[in-house]
Structure prediction request, 307 residues.
Amino acid sequence: MKTIRSTAFLPLLFLALAFLQSGCDIHFTGQEIRLRCQEADDSLEVLLIYRGVCVPDRENAIAKGVEHAARWLQGRREFAIAGCHFDLDDPEFEKDLDPETAGILRGIELEEVGAFLDPEKRLCGYQLFRIRNFTRALECWNRHLSRLAIEGAGPDLSKQIHPYFDEATQRLWLERARSGSPWISFQDGGFEVDLPMTRATAERFQRDLIESVTARDEKEDWRGLAALLSHLQSLQFEDDRVLLRFAAPSGGIFRFSFRNPDVQYRPGLLEALQAGGWDVESGPTLQEVRERLQPPAEDGAPEGERR
Prediction:
């Protein structure tokens, strides 16, 4: 799977996605991610939609892909986000985790899974997960991020955590990690990201982001970043902190999409599944899958996202 390039403007968020990566026998040309927080029962719903599912062009790829797809469609809690592959039902996944984190991951429920064809008649798939006790899960994630920050500084805490950090930001980062204060919180229907750093460091990240976007690399997919920034409600610099608040639209759904330009769709996996008796054509439509988190009347997705 593709390794996603970090723009460095929100290094902490991208650092978390690097956790426990592994290989995969199945590729996809793009992905849609939808999140909805249910404060009433303290849960987070996660809808993952995989567009243009296929296998790489190598020996035995189709056979391995069929085996992988069958395992996945039978309800294995195996998924990918932005190019990072996770298998929650693999015993090795919990090997180096603390008991609290392992317990939270075991409690993640796969409520629905299926395959379908998109308007281009390409093989697609979707999974609907629910994370219960989301507040506790978020607290656990914050502790994990603090551990990553401390580990990034090395045994003697002298290693630069990020190449853009000045000395003061390095100190602020470690102080936050030791304090137990959260990096990310959810309140009033939105996520608040609290990053300790000097204004000079923040401006350096901002310059890098602007330069990266204006470079207009044709192979770089900026839609994921654009979707993230579309949810940005406010950005504040105050007292050696950068505070970012991300809020969902009125429907309460956070929407993100990613495209993998390095993957060329091949119908071989679809043809093999159909030959094996899998009835993919009777699956839901793309729009019906998108509506798994909300009634059709409330769908405020832009028209371009419906294709």
Remarks:
- The chain has two domains: 20-133+252-297, 137-247.
- The chain has a mean pLDDT of 84.
- The CA atoms of residues 16 and 145 lie 7 Å apart.
- The longest helix spans residues 134-152.
